[in-house]
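re the bet — no i am not wrong, look at it urself. input seq straight from the record:
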Amino acid sequence: MELGISPFIANVSGYLVGLVLGFFVSRKFVFVSQGHLTAEVLRYLGAFAASLFLNLLVLRYLLNTLHWNAYVAQMVAAIVYTACMYALTRWLVFTPGVRR
């Protein structure tokens, strides 16, 4: 946003940058999964899309309806994304049966 781009573009750009790194860190270190890579990538992309969609809904609501400061709205939306993404990856992407 400091570069003059909209909060929505800044938001999506930031999450896209972290998408690949987030998958491999979560798979290897957070959930220590040894499941089928392709299946986990597809589930991860679905979880990412759902979490990002919820993030953008919250951001839009905070900015357009409540007229919050853009930086505060970004932080709250990021918390929502993180909670949603963790829950989905924990229970849907990296299943307990494939962890060490």
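see?? The chain has one domain: 7-94. told u. also Residues 1 and 10 are 6 Å apart (CA to CA). so pay up
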